[in-house]
Design a protein that fits this description.
mainly alpha; Ferritin; 8 helices; 71% helix; 0% strand
């Protein structure tokens, strides 16, 4: 059953839960990558793991702003790795089908979060929806045998990965800095 926050009072608790699930997802996908050693699935699962971290890093400032304290990464990673072990009997094709069939429910959860979120938080929260859309589109393309399906994952990561401090300075000092991706705002 989806967790759909009904009012602004549930917003912060749901935000914290969704953040923690991204950290769990990071470990889940990393754990699955170890179980799918073939190059294409392994790479895709590593990218999905990186996407989860990008999402968590992108929304972490909101947790800090509200004084929300998530469980430790180590604890959350343990939960994610346990889930990866429970899925160890799936084939790659079955896991892709799972993404296509089961991940759309997360879009409903993220839409509900957006409805109760303060207006100022909504641009930062779009990352939840964007990463799920990218993962589902990737899985659909991979199931069709598209060898370039992982580009959807790398594009997401490129749009949302924070610039390291030295790179931020380099971009800021550039005479023609590249505009920020509208998705990353």
């Amino acid at each position: 059953m989806p967790r759909l926050p009904q009012d602004p009072l549930e917003y912060q608790a749901t935000l914290l839960l969704f953040y923690e699930e991204e950290i769990m997802g990071e470990a889940l996908f990393a754990g699955l990558a170890q179980r799918f050693p073939a190059p294409q699935p392994n790479r895709a699962l590593q990218l999905l793991s990186q996407m989860e971290r990008c999402v968590a890093d992108h929304v972490r400032p909101l947790l800090d702003e509200y004084g929300l304290c998530p469980r430790s990464d180590a604890e959350l990673h343990g939960i994610g790795l346990l889930e990866a072990e429970q899925r160890s009997d799936s084939s790659w094709e079955d896991y892709l089908k799972h993404i296509v069939v089961d991940f759309p429910v997360f879009l409903d959860e993220f839409a509900a979060l957006m409805r109760v979120a303060p207006e100022a938080d909504r641009p930062r929260l779009r990352v939840f929806d964007d990463h799920e859309v990218a993962a589902i589109a990737f899985a659909k393309r991979a199931l069709r045998g598209d060898p370039d399906s992982a580009i959807l994952l790398t594009d997401f990561i490129a749009a949302y990965r924070p610039l390291s401090p030295p790179l931020q300075e380099e971009v800021a000092q550039s005479p023609n800095p590249a505009p920020a991706s509208p998705r990353a705002q």
